[in-house]
Amino acid sequence: MGRGREREEMIVKFNVGDLVELRKPHPCGCKQWQILRTGMHFRLKCTGCGHMVMVPRVKFEKDLKKVISKTTQTLNMQEEEEKGNI
Ligand SMILES: [Zn+2]
């Protein structure tokens, strides 16, 4: 019930190095991608063929099926940098 913190829990935090699965497979047949960069745009690397793409965060969140593995490392510096550019 309405307790203010609900919204925060909705926000999934992604870190560089996380492995994720997207709804649409890459033409190479692989659905798993590694996050190379977070921020307003995400840079993803296909774990099947090594192809890299840049996708807007909103699109990434829509295409995301599940997070396969989370890294423990956090690269907050990079995210701060992205926020500062807006
Ligand atoms: Zn691929």
Bound molecules: zinc ion
Largest sheet: number of strands, sense, barrel closure: 5 strands, antiparallel
Which structural class fits the helix and strand makeup? alpha+beta
Physical arrangement of strands within the biggest beta sheet: 4-3-2-1-5
- How many helices? The count is 3
Helix content: 10-25%
Mind explaining what this structure looks like?
With 86 residues, this protein is of the alpha+beta class. The protein has a single domain, classed as Thrombin, subunit H. Helix content is 24%, strand content 31%. The chain contains three helices and five strands, in the order H-E-E-E-E-H-E-H. A five-stranded antiparallel beta sheet has the order 4-3-2-1-5, with helices on one face. A hairpin with a 3-residue loop joins strand 2 (32-37) and strand 3. The model has no long low-confidence stretch (mean pLDDT 81).
